[in-house]
Amino acid sequence: MDWHLSIRDGCSPCACAKSSSDKDVILNILSVLTDLLSLGTGRRIQYVISKGGSEALLQALTTTAQTEPLDHSILLPLLRLLARVGQRDRKFGLKVQKAEATDTILSLARRSLGHHLHLTHCLWVLQVCASNVTTGTTLGINGAMELLFKVITPYSKRHIRTVRAAIEALAALLKSRSNSRRAVSRGYLGGLLRLYQDWHRNDVSNNYVYIRRGLLLCLKHITNIQLGRETFLFSKGMEILFTSVQDCLSCKNLDPIINTVIQILRKCYPKEPLPVATVRSSYSFPLPGNAKAEPPCEGSEGDYESDGEEEAEKDLDSEEEESKEEDYDLETDVNKLRSKAVLDRPEEELGQYKAMCPELSHNFQSLLSAPSHSIPNATSVKHPNYRLRNQSVTEMGPDPGEKDFKVPRQSWTNKEIHRWDQTDEKRDIAETAQDAHSCEDPARNHVLMLRPLPKDPAWYKKTFYPECEALINSSAGGSLDCSDIVTNLLEKHQGDIPFHSPHFYITRAKRVKSIPDYKDLAFPDFWGHQPPPYSKPMLERKYGVQRKSGIPHLIIFRDQRQPAIVILASIYCSHSSPGAPGCLTFFSKFESGNLRKAIQVREFEYDLIMNADVNSNQQHQWFYFEVRGMKLAVPYRFNIINCEKFNSQFNYGMQLVMYSVKEALQGRPRWLRAGHDICYYKNHYRCSATAGRGVKGNFYYTLTFSIKFPHKDDVCYLAYHYPYTYSTMMSHLDILERSRNPKKVYWRQQTLCQTLGGNLCPLLTITAMPESKKRDDLEQFCNRPYVFLVARVHPGESNASWVMKGTLEFLVSNDPIADLLRKCFIFKIVPMLNPDGVINGNHRCSLSGDDLNRQWLTPNSQLHPTIYHAKGLLYYLRSIGRAPLVFCDYHGHSQRKNVFLYGCSIKETLWQAGCMVDTAVITEDVGYRTLPKILDKVAPAFVMNSCSFLVEKSRESTARVVVWKEMGVLRSYTMESTYCGCSHGLYKVSQSFKEPCAGLQLGTQELEEMGSKFCLGLLILHLKSLPCSKKVMSQAALLLDLEEEITDRTQRSVIVVF
Ligand SMILES: [Zn+2]
User: Fold this and answer.
1) Residue-averaged pLDDT of the chain
2) How far is CA 154 from the centre of its chain?
3) From the CA of 650, how far away is ligand 1's center (Å)?
4) Which of 201, 879, 917, 958 is 20 to 30 Å from the Cα of 852, by its Cα?
5) DSSP string, 588-632
6) Pick from 976, 970, 980: which is nearest to 1001 by CA?
7) How far is the CA of 842 from the centre of ligand 1 (A)?
8) Residue 701 dihedral angles phi and psi, to the nearest 5°
């Protein structure tokens, strides 16, 4: 075909079309063009556009339209081509303006009014012209809407193609706000509503869904303006649309109609502020220095919505959609992508981190005893007399310099380390408990108690603890100190949950510094969680769920709402008020708890409001609260009405988690996926302009779910995801340290720094003890490459902690693979980068109200101490030539399924961005792909296809990007674990189980497994990428057949219950 040739010769058919006057030639060219463009992908059209095709066709149109009489044999193919090319040409509207073709098109349409085929062609072009708002406005001013309205009214099924084209063109025109205003003032809104009713009534067999949808789109655009919404309400639009969808709800084919109706209804429903006095967090924390203080925001201003509320409605059904804008966010500046060894602080500051690498000192006498070092905090960094503390590795006595540092817990740290040498556990616990009291500020020395359990003897009858019942019966009037119950229960708790001890938990929890000053322990954290022996598949999304839950709140129950009963005024109440009889009672004032307010809206239905992150007025997503006083077999409905993310896996099969105390006492202590008829949707609450500043869209979303509790009058806990508190982690570390084999496992727990809230951020070093004290072995020990792991910078991502738990347990285990792995690497691990956030029930931020994973470029030593010092330690490792081989930051992902890695690649970023940079000049090691490829093979939940190695501008201050760029770590990753489940791999239930196939929801077991498989992946990476000693290789060969590792996964079986 000589098409390309002719273009290159500068003689394209388009170019010919405008100059040639020979009708046959033109017709031939048009027919060739039509044939060419109707085949294949959009590439040909794009090519035509890039060569000025749109302009040429418009020019031809203007010329043809001037000839009298009109030659429709040319006009029609020309219009068809214009419509086709115009659809793909993003600048088509502008080109139409430039060519001054709007009038031409309009007058052509007017002249064709009597001829439907001709008119339809004109309308197609009109529609693509209107895709540009300015052009659309011009067309509106010149009377395009009047013309279209005449075509579509009154209702008639004749010339259906023309009517459809007219409605679609009108919808396009109404995207212009001035056109919408014009349409309202001409009374078109009422006309459109009536027309929609007519079509709805007459289209009994649903043959004209596209027409009805087109009319709804017109209404949707008009109601984008305030005047449109007011007129819509005045014209009874709510009632008309609501009634019309009632008979559509069960029909799957009518989804486009129902979704559009719901969007319009939600938008037009009068907006309300959230039923709270202020949207700011109930907690605030005074920041050191003059750090930014958020202005107070009251949620009571009048206008909850600006006139210009453009509905950025994302289609809820397009799951895992990657924003198209992402490409624009890619970093394309090669200089910014290149690794740069910069330093964000004075070099001499790095010396302090030497103490955090005791493994590098050759003094093994000291390695075998416990080291201590100073805990950097905001004060120590600024301290003018700051000095290196590396000597403390060998010193055991108190350091005189200690007094200069405001670290009151220093002495405690020493005791802490020593106490595990004692063998008598009971004495040990008692002592540490005393320790905890003696070293704490006496003013804060409160008694931390387990949440009291019901004292009703009947409560214990069916449990396995008749002693409790006897105890209660014997006490006068049932007034029994609940600590007796707890003591009794604990005697029965025989440590049946691995790596958990209620004693250790309570000891650790007593030391926690929280802003609300917690006095209660939540039962699940205290008692422990044991994963169930089965996994649960994702919920199937039922048709109509979203509607049923979305609309009743807007319409059906609008006037039937009972007067709201506030049963928990705010979390300031130390004890929940009992509320009306039959009411549930709520409580959340415990570690990681988050619930601000509960409002009973119907007998078995509650609206719940989460608390914003401390020092913030946003970030509501994480919830964790206690509920009691339930009836048996009644489905309770909960609506969490101030969620913030625009979409959620709750719409794609995810359930929340529930823990029943009665179940736990009967031997089933576990968080389970629970809840049904779950839906997540945009609601009618709006954030006031001031409160929502800086927030993308001032919208709130509702998570609604029904739940049947397993027992009557139980104490149950509900949470967004499996909770994992700071105390859980600290007590877990205590147990890990005790459980390891000290002859084999080198383990050091130090403190990276103190947090703003005064809690300690632990730093772990794990590797294998040197084989012997021979020089070679010691050298091998010191020269092992580093792996640097961090987790839980985002407190709401508790899944990250469960993965980290799996990693840690594997690393200290007796598994021979772990043994070998320890001999290959030195692990530096910060298992919780944001302890304060976790403790205080935040979702995203630290006490400073900052997202700590956006602070890595220039962390502030006072405001972001954990990031500042983690980065400092990395700088130190780099400065001694020991930058880690692998860095990984564990996260949770709320929008996507599976587990996957984000990494960094210059080439892939530039390539994806379509950059014309000669990538040949950039040599890039593709080694960053090896680990995810290995994980794809060895970890059942991991999916390589979900990984991405693109560097986005908006992520430039995340751990992954900064460590990659500033520390030169090629394998710098973020590991994202879904909150939901898997759509690929082993945990996707095979087709034979169920149609359509649903994946499994991840439980803690699968998350922990991911953590241990990550370790296995590291070992294989080492074997593949690094020079290994013969010894290591032969050991590895004994342990794992690499090929087998790869095929093995398909043979394992998963137990599934439905
Ligand atoms: Zn995260």
Assistant:
1) 79
2) 48
3) 18
4) 879
5) --BTT-B--EEEEEETTEEEEEPPPPTT-S------EEEEE-PPT
6) 980
7) 12
8) -125, 150
CA of 761 to the centre of ligand 1 (A): 18
What per-residue confidence (pLDDT) applies to 144?
95
DSSP summary character for residue 442: G
> Are 37 and 45 in contact, with CB atoms under 8 Å apart?
yes
Q: How far apart are the first and last CA of the chain?
A: 59
Task: Label the pairing between strands 605-609 and 635-643.
Answer: parallel
Tokens 């059906």 found at: 556
Tell me what pLDDT residue 443 has.
Answer: 43
CA 349 from centroid of its chain's CA atoms: 35
Q: Closest by alpha carbon to 401, among 390, 415, 385, 414?
A: 385
Tokens of 700: 């709130």
CA distance 13 to 7: 8
3-class secondary structure, 716: strand
User: Which amino acid would we find at residue 804?
Assistant: M
Q: Give the model confidence (pLDDT) of 308-329 as tens digits.
A: 344 433 333 333 344 444 567 8
CA atoms within 13 Å, Cβ hemisphere of 744: 17
Q: Strand 760-768's sheet: what is its strand order?
A: 745-754, 760-768, 826-830, 786-791, 886-893, 971-978, 899-902
Give the per-residue pLDDT at 689.
53
Which CA distances in Å does 623 have to 172, 505, 520, 546, 611? 42, 21, 17, 21, 8
Q: Looking at residue 694, what is its pLDDT?
A: 42
Q: State the Cα–Cα distance between residues 715 and 382, nearest whole angstrom.
A: 48
Query: Given this model, what pLDDT does residue 68 score?
Result: 82
- Whether 976 is a known active-site residue: answer yes
Ligand 1 center–CA 646 separation, angstroms: 16
Structure tokens at 456: 């009703």
Distance 721 CA to ligand 1 centre (A): 14
Phi (first) and psi of residue 1017, to 5 degrees: -60, -40
List of E strands, 911-1038: 971-978, 1000-1001
Q: What is the pLDDT of residue 292?
A: 53
The pLDDT value given to residue 468: 57
pTM: 0.74
CA–CA distance, 530 with 723 (Å, rounded to integer) = 13
557, HSE (Cβ side, Cα atoms, 13 Å) = 14
- Interhelix angle 209-222/188-202, rounded to 10 degrees, is 160
User: Of 168, 349, 908, 976, which is the active-site residue?
Assistant: 976
Q: Which two tokens stand for residue 32?
A: 């060739």
Q: How far is the CA of 798 from the centre of ligand 1 (A)?
A: 10
Token readout for 629 is 């006083």
Distance 8 CA to ligand 1 centre (A): 51
Q: Can you give the pLDDT at residue 1041?
A: 67
Q: Give the Å distance between the CA of 108 and the centre of ligand 1.
A: 56
- Residue 544 Cα to ligand 1 midpoint, Å, equals 32
d(CA 668, CA 946): 35
Which residue stretches of the chain have pLDDT < 70? 1-21, 40-41, 250, 289-327, 362-446, 457-484, 493-495, 541-581, 688-698, 917, 919-921, 989-998, 1041-1058
> How far, in Å, from the CA of 1010 to the mean position of ligand 1?
17
Q: How many CA atoms lie within 13 A of 29 on its CB side?
A: 23
| Dist. CA 32–CA 695, nearest whole Å | 51
